[in-house]
Amino acid sequence: MTASPITLGDNLTTSQLGFGGMALTPVYGAVEPADALATLHHAIDVGVTFIDTANVYGGGSNEQLIAAVLRDRRAEVQLATKFGITGNPAAGDRGVRGDRDYVRQCIDESLQRLGTDTVDLYYLHRLDPNTPIEDTVAAMAELVTEGKVRHLGLSEVTAAELRRAVAVHPIAAVQSEWSIWSRDVESNVVPAAAELGVGFVPYAPLGRGFLTGTVTADTISSNDIRNHFPRFDDGSIDTNRAAVAAIQTVADAVGATAAQVSLAWLRHKGSDFGLPVVSIPGTRKQHRIDENVSSLDVDLSAAQVAELDSIAGLVSGERSAVASWVSSGRE
Questions:
Q1: Buried b / exposed e along 200-234 (16+ C-beta atoms within 10 A)
Q2: Residues in domain NADP-dependent oxidoreductase (predicted)?
Q3: Are 311 and 246 in contact (CB under 8 A)?
Q4: Residues 141-151 pLDDT 10s
Q5: Average pLDDT over the chain, rounded to whole?
Q6: pLDDT per residue over 19-29, tens digit each?
């Protein structure tokens, strides 16, 4: 069982499915480091070699965790990390910096924590409203010239911001939330990425676990980051079960799980829009990685894709508590 390779923008080749490292931090409750390492190793073993992290995940501890895997397996991994967010977003502290000094400071700190001399894909995690994106990307491009970074990426940018960035340096990928219940990026950002030859990396492709059908109000602990998202509050979470039920109907029809159908839907949407899509679901459990990889064998009919397309209309609550924090809030 392997995930076949796919090429994003700027000739960056990765596995067709990635792994979101944020799941291996305490944002969803406590996690055992030994279990987290075993999960990462298993992902690579089955061909999920595109590993995504960020300097803000666990205050840098996620990069340090991944370093333990890279020590012996760096050549097998396409490594992505991010910079730009300051503070602790999980606690409502959403600062951003994109100035040249901070760009250079962050890459050196990340490389040290990761125990490597280069990052395959380096993202601007959020746009700094006080620094023109052209200046931030120019500073990031210096890192490519110096060999510290191989490719550049942007997270949660608008179509206009993406165009401005591409004019400075090739962009390999845009990472934004995109899933059956979060489709706002399809209005402008996804078409712009397709036009410009930029790949797309959907984060939270399973709706932070909700689209799998395994998450209820009772399973979310008091220290879970999902408590900060409107879709998980008391007024929305029960309503949103209708979306999960609709996904499960399709899953039953094709003999797959709701998670597999959700990931297969994104693969089909990438084909519809004409751009490479590499989802990065996160998990703490090895068998969930196997389940996610098996989504690559799930084929959906045009009618089933259309049925899944309608689910966004059932969803209650915005995808972010702060509109400007995501691209749709600035479009």
A1: bbbbbbbbbbbbbbebeeeebeeebbbebbebbee
A2: 17-311
A3: yes
A4: 999 999 999 99
A5: 92
A6: 998 888 876 66
Domain layout of the chain by residue ranges:
5-207+269-298
Nearest to 159 by CA among 11, 267, 275, 22: 275
CATH topology of domain 5-207+269-298: TIM Barrel (3.20.20)
How many C-beta atoms surround the C-beta of residue 64 within 10 A? 16
Q: Distance (Å, rounded) from C-alpha 268 to C-alpha 235?
A: 32
Q: Is the pLDDT at 222 greater than 80, yes or no?
A: no
Query: Given the structure tokens 């939270």, which residue do they identify?
Result: 204
Query: CB of 52 within 8 A of CB of 18?
Result: yes
pTM > 0.85: yes or no: yes
Lowest mean pLDDT among 29-38, 196-205, 210-219, 288-297: 210-219
Q: Report the alpha-carbon distance of residue 331 to residue 328 in Å, rounded.
A: 5
Structure tokens at 124: 């601007």
pLDDT at residue 82 greater than cutoff 50: yes
For the chain, what's the residue count? 331
Output the 3-class SS for 90-136. Answer: HHCCCEECCCHHHHHHHHHHHHHHHCCCCEEEEEECCCCCCCCHHHH
